[in-house]
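Problem: given the chain below (238 residues), write out its structure.
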Amino acid sequence: MLELIQDYWLYFLVGQYPNGPLGGLSLTVLLSAAALILAMPLGLVLGVARVSPYRAVRWPVAVLVQLVRAVPLLLVVFWAYFFLPAVTGVKTGQATTMLMTLVLFDAVYLAEIVGAGIKALPKGQLEGARSLGLSYAQALRLVILPQALRHVSPSLVSQLVATIKATSLGYIIGLSEVSFIATQVNTLVFTKAVEVYIVLAATYFILCFGLSRLAFLLERRLGRRPALVSAESAKEMS
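Solution.
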């Protein structure tokens, strides 16, 4: 296994880059991070609309969220790569197709995360902001969303973990992400399939477990903060 890593670690890490397209683990991480970052603005908008007091805003977003969540990501990748070019006449590359698909799914799941974070806040937060003369939009932007995003930050990290694992579906359209590169390495060496896929599994485990631990630590820190604030307030009062 050490010989396998020594011979193919660079190919496993960056694919054919700089003599070809970027691939491997670098592409997996960059694609996941870019998808989450690009999905954040849309996810915030959908999340706010998800808890809007107006039915005309809330219901269409609820339908969109449930529809996207009900369709397998694999099917959407197929549609985006094979069906849409036939209809529109515009063909996108594997990386662009996968990025657009991940952005759509991340935005929907972020909408649920943001909506849950807003609902978890006491209702008095919004009412207090409105009583100070802030409009509904100003109250959301200045008071509600900063608190909600802080509380759901562990869930955002967990969503990044889910996105990293979802990039492996790019294999079906020939995207040279880390699992596709592992399959190519297995084809080259042919007799070391067990070692190749052990390295692939270990890579996913280290990456995803590290991020999961980060989410856990963030959750613990956020859980301890209210208690620390209460203790400090008690000291000041005494």
